[in-house]
Amino acid sequence: xxxxxxxxxxxxxxxxxxxxxxxxxxxxxxxxxxxxxxxxxxxxxxxxxxxxxxxxxxxxxxxxxxxxxxxxxxxxxxxxxxxxxxxxxxxxxxxxxxxxxxxxxxxxxxxxxxxxxxxxxxxxxxxxxxxxxxxxxxxxxxxxxxxxxxxxxxxxxxxxxxxxxxxxxxxxxxxxxxxxxxxxxxxxxxxxxxxxxxxxxxxxxxxxxxxxxxxxxxxxxxxxxxxxx
Amino acid sequence: xxxxxxxxxxxxxxxxxxxxxxxxxxxxxxxxxxxxxxxxxxxxxxxxxxxxxxxxxxxxxxxxxxxxxxxxxxxxxxxxxxxxxxxxxxxxxxxxxxxxxxxxxxxxxxxxxxxxxxxxxxxxxxxxxxxxxxxxxxxxxxxxxxxxxxxxxxxxxxxxxxxxxxxxxxxxxxxxxxxxxxxxxxxxxxxxxxxx
Lengths: 229, 196
What we know:
The structure holds 2 protein chains of 2 kinds.
Chain A: E1 10-16, E2 21-23, E3 43-50, H1 53-63, E4 75-78, E5 85-101, E6 107-111, E7 131-133, E8 140-142, E9 148-152, E10 154-155, E11 160-161, E12 167-169, E13 172-174, E14 187-191, E15 194-209, E16 214-218, E17 223-227
Antiparallel strand pairs in A: 1-2, 1-3, 3-4, 5-6, 5-15, 7-8, 9-14, 10-11, 12-13, 15-16, 16-17
Chain B: E1 2-11, E2 16-17, E3 54-55, E4 59-69, E5 73-79, E6 93-97, E7 141-143, E8 153-156, E9 165-175, E10 190-195
Antiparallel strand pairs in B: 1-2, 1-4, 3-9, 4-9, 5-8, 5-10, 6-7, 6-9
């Protein structure tokens, strides 16, 4: 049965100016402290901390919620005097598709759309001219059908596929390796260079001073930009 | 901490609410009695008009906050990739209902069952038989391509603190006389929401 939520890997900790701190989850019970209930005017720093394996168990016991233990980096943002902290978890569904390049086997997340200041960055390539490209070997696929036609051919003289493609002389294909004529090139096949693997939802954490640009941090702990909510 | 949220299609009288369609295709067809999730069902196709424009029946798509422990869900946005690759003809578009001010999403209380004249669905923005939440607006519909990752559509900026449905966006296919007959390729609409 699907969870209908994306398990989180981060929890927030708000640190007050007097040095005390409020974690999102009580380290002993796993029970949640609501962000809306913290004394926001006293907060000096708001941070995202990776959830440890121990905390994952505590949170599951305390709140019945699945989280993902990880060793992502800590991110903290200072809150200027007179400002309040803000925190949001933004779910985007589906934000993109994992794609697999059948040329080189590389898998990556492909984000839809025109350039997005949040999602479009290294590793999340935008498409160009409605085509997508493998970020590893730059093989090209069509965005709609993800299919590219390729002619396969086999040189009967040496009985193996040859590369580069055969040259053509007087309309007849010639193996560039052995000079054999009438190389069969009619074994045209549709070849998926880049295929969709799965749609997926995606989480972005937003932290920073309220009513200012917030820092966007993705599920893997990478700062991916700043923006208003 | 974590709201359980699904994507639903509202259709028919009532309305009836579909199962979760997150990541799944939803067909725009010429009937209001189906959620459009059955991809094998090719009945009630949108008719290509002999003159003027034809329309599919419009569909309401919203987020359903089903439960979970959360303080607030808000800032529901919708966008596409900026290019709908459907062959709907010269003036054919995938339309979405829009308001002149405020959220573009339609509240659940303003749901309106799509209807048709026997051949086509009624356009969202047509004065008579259109969608009452949109048909009195100066710009009652827009090309959904106007809403992309650089210009997302504000569906619902209200704060939801209990399990309920958010406002939903209303989509409809507009078909021109030179449209190409047949099933169109899947297009993806993305939805995001913020949560505390």
